[in-house]
Amino acid sequence: MSRVEKRVPRSFYIDLGNPTHRRATMIFSTGTVIFLFATAIGSYRAYEFTESVTFCGQICHEVMEPEYTAYQKSPHARVTCTECHVGPGAGWFVRSKLSGAYQVYATLFNVYPKPIPTPIKNLRPARETCETCHWPEKFHGSKEKIFDHYMVDEKNTKWSIRMLIKTGGGSKEAGIAEGIHWHMNLANEVDYIATDPQRQEIAWVRVKDHKGNVREYMSEDNPIDTDDFKQYKIRRMDCMDCHNRPTHIFDSPSQAVNKALSAGRIDVKLPYAKKVAVEALIQEDYPSKDSAYVAIDNYIREFYETEYPQIAQTRKEAIDQMIREVQKIYRWNFFPEMKVRWDVYPNNIGHFLSPGCYRCHDGRHVSNDGKVIPNNCKNCHIIISQGTKNESKLIAPDGLEFKHPEDIEEAWREMACSECHTGTSQL
Q1: What are the distances in angstroms from CA 235 to CA 65, 263, 278?
Q2: Partners of 385 in the beta sheet?
Q3: pLDDT tens digits for 80-125?
Q4: What was the pLDDT predicted at 328?
Q5: How far apart are CA 195 and CA 217, in angstroms?
């Protein structure tokens, strides 16, 4: 009878004295180190890529095309998306990735809104992002700015407004804050309640000055019952309440054509160039950019061939250049697939096409003791010259009263600019 040997399994061991074990250990260890190193490099590269402008603007090309296009020609074109939208620190990095997970889902399943809404509620406080480069306390004095407008008449009459904008600033060391940046000085606190998601309807304002005096103002047009205060969020004013479109800027047709005329990209000597260019951009809601380019070409050519046949023959090159420029304006500012154009997003700088400053400075916010938030033009800027070419040569250091290019009598005193100026044919 044969004996069956019962084998006891040996425990795992590595014998470095054994050449086979030693060689296997060296191969495994070397491979592990290389793998971990490659993983670390790959992870960092992946992280670096997800933080890049390419990832934000081009991976989801159709979704982010308007924002990425506007970004490329903006004052912040050399600043990465994450420097503003995320900023430093792990906390906001994690929040951005969690938020981004939903955005990836929305893109994959085509459930994202058109247009993409401004992430007002999710933006990091401006003091933690904007003020790492822009320090309100270090802005002082006034800044000269010239606004060139062109009328919609045959001669494309130029109407310029040259003004000193009281940027202001100030600090405890430099003295009491003044100018527009008075709102942002650390010595002052401005809080408000907006009753709409885009913060265009401001119903209540509270101001605390450098002496500790507090005054509350209520809108006469949109008052809030004191019993309803709890349902609203009180917000502390910061940079983004005025500079809400610092990068993703979409010019209105009128603004874009004005710039092109000033720069000579559209010949100002072409009759009705301003009027025709603007009309070509907005004559209808084009379904796509390609259809817009064709329609713009046809509209401009047809106008000059019909109304000015001699100019259509002798100034063909200028008309071709005008067509190319208007098509370019459309390409940079209109995105029919995403339903984006200039009037989708309010721009709070100034008060020309959006309420902007007039959200508070409308003369309709009154305190209990009868004080009114002022709407005097000279509080924020001084017009030192205005008018046509000859008129604008006359300089008034103490400031001029605003003169409207068209005779609307005193209506400009009683209405907000944005009630008439929509960005289309007016100036």
Answers
A1: 31, 41, 38
A2: 162
A3: 998 998 888 888 888 888 887 888 888 888 888 999 888 877 788 8
A4: 98
A5: 15
CA dist 298 and 286 (Å) reads: 14
What residue type is assigned to position 394 of the chain? L
pTM: 0.86
Question: Which string of DSSP letters, residue by residue, matches 124-153?
Answer: PPGGGTGGGT--GGG--S-EEEEEEEE-SS
According to DSSP, the residues that pair with 204 across neighbouring strands are 193, 218
| Residue 359, token pair as written in the block | 């959200």
Structure tokens that stand for 178 in this block: 């003044």
> How does 391-405 read in b/e, with b if 16+ C-beta sit within 10 Å?
ebeeeeeeebeeebe
CA distances from 328 to 8, 75, 164, 281 (A): 82, 19, 31, 11
Angle at 38 between CA 32 and CA 42, to 5 degrees: 145
Neighbours of 269 (CB within 10 A): 11
Residue matched to tokens 């959006």: 354
Neighbouring-strand partners of residue 382: 164
Q: What is the CA radius of gyration of the chain?
A: 30
Contact 425, 195 (CB under 8 A): no
